[in-house]
Amino acid sequence: MLHVVLKQKIIVYNVGHIIINKMGDNIINKNSDNVVDEIVSVLKNSNGLTITEIVEKTKLNRSSVRIALAKLDGAEKVFVRKIGMAKVYFLKGGKK
After folding, report:
1. DSSP state string for the chain
2. Tens digit of pLDDT per residue, the chain (96 long)?
3. 3-class secondary structure for 42-65?
4. 96 occurs within a structural domain
5. What is the phi-psi region of residue 62: left when phi exceeds 0, alpha when psi lies from -120 to 50, beta otherwise?
6. What CATH number corresponds to the domain at position 50?
7. Domain housing 5
C-alpha cells in the first residue's frame, strides 16, 4: 500500500518499511536488511540482550526489532533464553 503524506512541503511515500522523499534519494527509515544487520552487530558485542536493551542500543522501533529477531530466530542465527518474564537473545556462535 502506498501512503502519501504532505509534511513541510515534502511528499513522503511509505512503501513497506522504506520511507523515501519525492526525490527518491533520502531514506528516512531503515529497511529490514539493515535492521537485521544492526541487531546482529549489537548482539555480537554482548552476552545476550532483551528486546528493550536492543531498542535502547540501536534506537530502532520496538516492532521492527521484534520482526528482525523473529527472522533471525527462524534462520537459526539466534537462540532465546527465557529468564523470568524476559526473553534474552543470544547470537549463535557466541561473542567474538
Report:
1. -EEEEEETTEEEEEETTEEEETTS--B-S--HHHHHHHHHHHHHTSS-B-HHHHHHHH---HHHHHHHHHHHHHTTSEEEEEETTEEEEEETT---
2. 444 444 444 444 444 444 444 444 333 445 667 899 999 999 999 999 999 999 999 999 999 999 999 999 999 999 999 999 999 999 998 554
3. HHHCCCCECHHHHHHHHCCCHHHH
4. no
5. alpha
6. 1.10.10.10
7. 1-30
Cell 523470568: give the residue.
84
- Cell 526473553 belongs to 87
Regarding whether 61 and 86 lie in a shared domain, the answer is yes
